[in-house]
Design brief:
This protein has 8 helices and 9 strands. By secondary structure, it is an alpha+beta fold. It has 2 domains: about 1-80 and about 140-200, 2-Layer Sandwich (Endonuclease, Chain A); about 80-135 and about 205-239, no CATH class. The chain has a 7-stranded mixed β-sheet with strand order 1-9-8-7-2-5-6, with helices on both faces.
Length: about 240
């Protein structure tokens, strides 16, 4: 029977993700799909253990272990430019330069607020970088994706929740469909996830265009020839 779950603010969603991944650990091989516009790591209240395949404290660690055990993991998300829009980076850079020239109280207060945004952006970038480095995890991008869809061999989760720590603090609504009980809904969810992955693009086609869009920052003596140099600058801002 289809479950409709309302997650209260500050609870339950991490347990739903944990249940989904635990079900996947019980099925050797196969594949799972993650479709989420935004992704960051989500920790579990207690370690997720299903030996010998799974002993993880968070979602990213669990995905790495499942992939190492032979599970094919397919991810569809938005590229960095969704969270690091060139106009947003320009605003951060201008404010940072003003603060370097001489601090004013109102600027300090504004910067404290913006640093939270920088830190949140970094958490998403670092999670995406980690996924891209994982063996057996295949990541593609679609900056128009708005669906939140998680489909494994046994369960499909459909709803409003991104795979982010922020979502675990929000009030979300998800539907959980089991393959053996809710066959039609599960099948439609899986087919949709597969189609979204096939129609998405690989990183290289996005990275080249994105870095070219950052040329405006040369006005501020900032030039990013690679994503690594951009990450280093963001860490400096967040410090």
């Amino acid at each position: 029977m289809v479950e409709v779950l309302l997650t209260p603010r500050g609870g339950k969603l991490d347990r739903i993700f944990a249940r989904f991944l635990l079900e996947e650990a019980r099925v050797r091989g196969g594949s799972l799909y993650i479709v989420s516009p935004w992704i960051s790591d989500v920790g579990f209240e207690r370690r997720l253990v299903y030996l010998p395949y799974l002993d993880a404290g968070g979602v990213l660690e669990a995905l790495r272990q499942l992939a190492s055990a032979g599970k094919s993991v397919f991810v569809v998300t938005r590229y960095y430019d969704d969270v690091l829009r060139p106009d947003l980076l320009y605003t951060w850079a201008v404010l940072f330069r003003l603060l370097e020239r001489g601090s004013r109280e109102e600027l300090d207060e504004l910067w404290r607020e913006l640093k939270d945004d920088v830190s949140f952006s970094l958490s998403r970038i670092e999670a995406l970088d980690e996924l891209l480095r994982m063996e057996g995890v295949h990541v593609r991008f679609n900056n128009r994706v708005h669906a939140k869809l998680y489909v494994g061999e046994r369960l499909a989760i459909i709803g409003s929740a991104n795979l982010t720590l922020m979502s675990t603090r929000n009030e979300e609504c998800v539907i959980v469909a089991r393959r053996d009980e809710d066959g039609d809904l599960y099948r439609q969810a899986r087919e949709h996830a597969e189609e979204m992955y096939e129609s998405a693009r690989e990183e290289r086609s996005y990275e080249r265009v994105y870095l070219s869009r950052l040329r405006r920052l040369q006005e501020l003596n900032l030039w990013f020839g690679s994503m690594e140099s951009l990450r280093e600058w963001l860490h400096e801002l967040a410090a």
